[in-house]
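Protocol step 4 of 6: structure prediction from sequence.
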Amino acid sequence: MKYIPHDYQTRAKDFILEHPKAGMLLEMGLGKTVITLTAIDVLINELFEVDRVLVIAPKRVAEDTWTREHAKWDHLRHLRVSKVLGSPEQRRRALAVDADIYVIGRDNVVWLVEQCRQGWPFDMVVIDELSSFKNPQAKRFRALKKVIPKASRVVGLTGTPSANGLMDLWAEIYLLDRGERLGHTLGAYREKYFRPGARNGYVVFKWEPLRGSREKIEAAISDICISMSADDYLTLPKRIDNLIPVKLSPQEMKQYKTMEAEQLLHIDDEDVVALNAAAVMIKLLQIANGSVYSHEGNVVRLHDAKLEALLEIIDTTDSPVLIFYSYKHDLAAIKAAIPGARTLDGPEDIAEWNAGRVQVLLAHPASVGYGLNLQEGGHVIVWYGLTWSLELYQQANARLYRQGQDKPVIIHHLIAEGTVDEQVMRALQEKDMSQAALMAALKERRTQ
């Protein structure tokens, strides 16, 4: 296929070329992959600045998206791509291949750094979904931190740089500039821009930005980060967010309230126990969905309210439906009620869905949230159980609501009334305001 870039895609590509350290904060659907591959092609074959490029991506994106985009566009097919995936031996063989681009799953970063301890062979590193490196205590961040100075060029790609607040930014930006803009340690960043919020004794659970910190942080990183919003550049189809209230019976609500108040529930010789506040929240989400895990790990079925609401949607919808579930017992219940439903397990499931041969596709948002193109297969989403993560929520919805979708996208949310479902929905909306503020502040400054 011939690549005719949009004007914004050309500007984004030029930003990468002009900035050895580039944070590409581009919302889902703007074509981050083809933009970056085009820049890589120029750096390798026209400017001769780069020889070997490492792309770090979520597992499914590494398996599918980068190689598919490379093969899709005529101007990129000459690039040699090696997928460093599979068993350790398969990964070692892929590293030994003479290629231009090496694509590896983010879960194998620690392995790769150890494998290359005798010499880092990559002069450019692309971190797809930079936000997945927001935890500076994570092993993959620490491993990448050791070798990132050896790359002359680093590109970070994400549409959700601070889904859970400004504290996320430090580790992400550090991988680009090694602490030049936001400080060399998380402690220094925290001390400069935040104050303690919620705490228990000396333990601080939440840090709150000081007055004016957001503006100062945005100004500090604006020279190496470019932000683009899909609303500014794409004409997307209409999006319809539909909240479907699901009512539990008085007995079911009594069980829910008992768990909420006492952190203990006894049902049919099974004990459901939550040892702390976080565990209580998880148990309440499970109960709202219809089942809960007992203390022994058994599934205790409580109600079919959400399942009945889901079946009604399926029965009244002609289009294929993409269902996001939260727990394994949700998946089991849905598959039992809809025998023909297919679980997204690999690239072949994506191909079958996009070909229109799958009527109901089941996916966990954590496994489908990044970079996968599913817009050809349908335009209806159902959230059987919500996620607290704004990043996963936005990314998952963007699998259908993205460039190339030619129908209105309907997103159904099954909300159990009077339960934590309502709180999660509110939290997602409030975080979205914070995320939107950062993206707006870092928007590309166009040349007048």
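Step 5 (inspection) to follow. The chain has a mean pLDDT of 89.
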